[in-house]
UniProtKB/TrEMBL annotation:
Pfam families: TatC. This is Sec-independent protein translocase protein TatC. GO terms for molecular function: proton motive force dependent protein transmembrane transporter activity. Its main location: membrane. One of its GO terms (biological process) is protein transport by the Tat complex. Forms a complex with TatA. It is found in: Cell membrane; Membrane.
Length: 291
């Protein structure tokens, strides 16, 4: 009996030691994650300070750009309209007066918009820090397959930002500014509402363009398959066309294709990525069983 108690005590001490070791490892990981997040925060703060210093340029040329008829997108649309002889395609006026209704509204706008821009500019570095945190936990094969994660994720995000800012945001601003249910109602837009709309459309489009990266991760985990995405393609087509119809100023096919075509290509690229991951997993399983 005494011998059994001694054995149980020794096992209990061993288990306690393993538990303490696991807890220390967990807190070590938290500490390491904190370091990466602090470095990312410092970079974002520096980007925000730069945006705050050059805020005149940021506000006049970037934030207010989609509300000006001289914006690049509207000028290109006028040229395309002239080429195809479509007068309704050219946008020469953005109605709606932008106002401020709060005492600290403009100061808050400057802080929020500088911070939002700083975050957007700091995303590539944030992804780099995330990769540095995750990389040590990956196997050699997983590291090899994930090579270029930061580059491709940053590239897709920047392409998405550009598409959102130069295509989705100006078309949405034009559509919503011209939309009216009665001539007696005049569109008077607060600066907070305008900025939040432009920022949301731009950043959300940037996030949507990360779809291939998300599909890559889900395919690695076995959650997403190319067969499933092909099966649901018709639903994706309907959703993309609905989004394109909402944000485009005119219901003609060329305008809708301008918005929807990149989204179609993005979905097909995601299917291709999922297919590559599936083939890689099948090849690895075949090599394992043959060895």
């Amino acid at each position: 009996m005494a011998k059994e108690r001694k054995t149980d005590l020794i096992e209990s001490i061993k288990n306690k030691g393993k538990s303490m070791e696991g807890e220390m490892s967990f807190f070590d990981h938290l500490s390491e994650l904190r370091v990466h997040l602090i470095r990312s925060s410092i970079v974002i703060i520096l980007m925000t300070i730069v945006c705050f210093i050059y805020y005149d340029f940021l506000f006049d040329n970037i934030i207010m750009g989609p509300h000006k008829p001289t914006f690049w997108t509207y000028r290109m649309m006028c040229k395309v309209g002239e080429y195809f002889n479509k007068s309704g395609f050219c946008i020469t006026n953005i109605p709606g007066k932008i106002i401020n209704t709060e005492m600290a509204g403009q100061f808050t706008l400057q802080i929020n918009s500088a911070l939002m821009t700083g975050i957007a500019l700091g995303v590539p570095y944030l992804l780099w820090e995330v990769w540095r945190f995750v990389k040590p936990a990956l196997k050699d094969s997983e590291r090899k397959s994930a090579t270029g994660f930061v580059f491709y994720a940053s590239l897709l995000f920047l392409i998405g930002l550009s598409f959102g800012y130069f295509i989705v945001a100006p078309l949405s601003v034009n559509f919503l500014s011209n939309y009216s249910i009665s001539p007696e109602i005049e569109n008077t837009i607060t600066i907070d509402s305008y900025f939040s709309s432009v920022a949301t459309l731009t950043l959300c489009t940037g996030a949507v363009f990360e779809l291939p990266i998300v599909i890559f991760i889900l395919s690695k985990l076995g959650i997403m398959t190319p067969a499933f995405m092909r099966e649901k393609r018709r639903f994706a087509v309907v959703i993309i066309l609905v989004i394109a119809a909402i944000v485009t100023p005119t219901p003609d096919i060329p305008t809708m294709l301008t918005v929807s075509l990149p989204l179609f290509l993005l979905y097909e690229l995601s299917i291709f990525v999922s297919l590559k991951v599936q083939k890689s997993k099948l090849k690895a399983e075949k090599a394992f069983y043959n060895s």
